[in-house]
Known about the structure:
This protein is an alpha/beta fold. The protein is built from 14 helices and 11 strands. The protein has helices spanning 2-11, 14-20, 47-60, 92-104, 115-120, 125-138, 161-172, 177-190, 202-209, 231-249, 265-274, 289-292, 310-317, 320-327; strands spanning 25-31, 62-63, 82-89, 109-113, 144-147, 150-153, 213-217, 255-257, 278-282, 287-288, 298-304. Helix 11 (265-274) links the parallel strand 8 (255-257) and strand 9 (278-282). The protein is globular.
Amino acid sequence: MKRLTFSLLKIIGISSLLRxxxxxxxxxxxxxxxxxxxxxxxxxxxxxxxxxxxxxxTKYYSVTSFENISQLKENHYSxxxxxxxxxDDGYYDFYEHxxxxxxxxxxxxxxNIVNDCATHNQIxxxxxxxxxxxYCKENRIDLSFLFNGKKISFQSHNGNWLKFYLEMYNLxxxxxxxxxxxILAEKEQEYSISPVxxxxxxxxVIECSESQVEIGCHTYAHDVLSxxxxxxxxxxxxxxxxIEIEKKVGKKCKVLALPNGEGNEKIEEIVESSGLKxxxxxxxxxxxxxxxxxxxxxxxxRINLVxxxxxxxxxxxxxxxxxxxxxx
Length: 328
């Protein structure tokens, strides 16, 4: 029913009307995995859907890069609005599935790398959380966590796995890395779960860099930066991460994508002093040219995409969902 509704809205021209309103703006898409793997809590975009996405943006947008932002000119109603394809984390499936399609359509992109993932194939904490939840959902286990003396369980959420997952995800965002990883390790041990997820290595990252992929920083270990109080750790997560990326790929690193979109004023001060030029958030908004002008550090907003029908994805790109939420 939902797909039919969006198809009808597209036929009558609503998506075109929304796109027409993007004069003098930059749309940045936030992407992660491109794979046929299934994950109930964070479903990757399939290669087939990703190719349809590329066909859409190629037809209706001028696909560009952060490197070229300073050269962009304000567009008029008759020209295509600008768009950047921005990826996070450095999953191997980008190299396996996304990169060949980006090459096929001759499109530039941005990919923000976690150093520990490229060096040690580290599994990101959110991926470990998903593995726990997927295992328990598939095996009908009443998963529960003891958090600050309070039991939080699947049953206490009236059998709603997504609601339960989001509560735990948001709680884990607020605690230190040590506490977060202890909680995850305890559950992995309890259910004998060994999460597996292949990440790109540095050789593959360098090959991407040579194929119109602008490599940015997604911190050293994908910690939640807003929970870090130690200045030396923040320095490693942001500045040392960017320096190492520059040495590996031989190009200036100008982009920082905040893990889980979590930042604060202290982090922005460190970024501004580091030489990084763009800090990426995920707020489902677009960026105005007036904001992009000048040489100082810029906050960039992105629109998050996961697997769904291409017609609904199109409306998400054109901010239909954002506008509906605003007025509901």
